[in-house]
Design a protein that fits this description.
By secondary structure, this protein is an alpha+beta fold. It folds into two domains: 20-131; 138-276, Beta-Lactamase (2-Layer Sandwich), CATH 3.30.450.40. The protein contains seven helices and six strands, in the order H-H-H-H-E-E-E-H-E-E-E-H-H. The protein has helices spanning 2-13, 20-68, 74-132, 138-153, 197-207, 251-276, 284-291, and strands spanning 155-163, 169-176, 186-187, 211-212, 223-229, 232-242. Strand 1 and strand 2 (169-176) form a beta hairpin. The radius of gyration is 31 Å and the shape is elongated. The two termini are 38 Å apart.
Length: 292
């Protein structure tokens, strides 16, 4: 009886914690905060320097105008004209410096925006990778995959297909935003030339090449990504539709599709093997034999 209680406790500890969406946002915000702060400080310093140079140039123009009104003699005129010439040259130099600072500020701002976008992409991929491997319970794995597609890609309806042992048929195993009972099993044969979701899923499974819509998305599926186990295609993730505000895929979406295609299949298979073994750890001897 005590053994049963122990196993029950183990299952409760595998239950998912707080909302995955909240955890994704908190981890991404914490990851980005440190990198954005220094970029903002640098931009502010450049703007202050730019303002100072503009003020200096304005003062020189005022001094130049004042000298022109105080000319009283030929000698004074010559001296003042010489001074004016010097001031004009200094003004030109300062204006050139101002323009250079403006160009530098623009380049820094653009680069900062690029870095900000790259860091956000890295943060999303880091959180996705962490969440994908956070559990070895099949229900939690598919839930995490669907949450990643909804939260990070903006998917509205998603399904995961898996192949039988011989790879002759694809069966939908889970879905979100579309009734699983309405999704058919797909017999895999030579690539069909007909259009439609089934043909896209079949072609993606057979070729192992992701189908990701280009430009505005108006026809389903929006994306179809093969699930890989080493070099073998074992299934496919299908995004049938996106949320209304999401009209097209960006670079980070494609990187997330690559990540899920490379890891989700192996994680699902690992979860299944873990469940069939009753959650028991392999012995050191068996691992040593397999690693030899």
């Amino acid at each position: 009886m005590s053994e049963k209680k122990g196993r029950g406790g183990s299952r409760r500890s595998d239950e998912p914690g707080p909302s995955v969406g909240t955890q994704l946002k908190e981890r991404r915000d914490a990851f980005l905060h440190t990198f954005f702060k220094r970029g903002a400080e640098l931009t502010d310093e450049l703007v202050q320097e730019n303002r100072r140079l503009h003020e200096h140039a304005s003062r020189l123009e005022e001094e130049n105008a004042s000298l022109k009104t105080q000319l009283a003699s030929d000698r004074a005129i010559r001296d003042l004209l010489y001074k004016i010439d010097q001031l004009e040259r200094e003004k030109a130099r300062l204006l050139s410096t101002v323009h250079q600072q403006e160009e530098l500020t623009s380049r820094v701002t653009n680069r900062f925006q690029e870095i900000e976008s790259e860091l956000e992409s890295f943060a999303n991929l880091y959180v996705a990778s962490f969440q994908l491997h956070a559990s070895l319970k099949a229900r939690n794995v598919v839930k995490n995959v669907k949450e990643l597609l909804i939260q990070l890609v903006g998917a509205r309806s998603v399904a995961i297909y898996f192949a039988d042992e011989e790879g002759r048929r694809l069966t939908p195993v889970t879905s979100e935003g579309v009734d699983l009972a309405t999704l058919p099993m797909i017999a895999v044969h030579e690539v069909s030339s007909s259009a439609g979701a089934e043909a896209v899923i079949e072609r993606t499974f057979l070729t192992g090449v992701p189908h990701v819509a280009e430009g505005d998305i108006d026809l389903p599926p929006a994306a179809c990504v093969p699930l890989l186990l080493e070099e073998r295609v074992v299934g496919a993730i299908v995004v049938y539709a996106l949320l209304e505000h999401k009209t097209r895929f960006v670079a980070v979406d494609r990187e997330l599709f690559k990540l899920l295609g490379a890891h989700a299949g192996a994680v699902l298979i690992s979860a299944n093997l873990w469940a069939t073994q009753g959650g028991r750890m392999p012995s050191a001897e068996s691992l040593r034999a397999m690693c030899a």
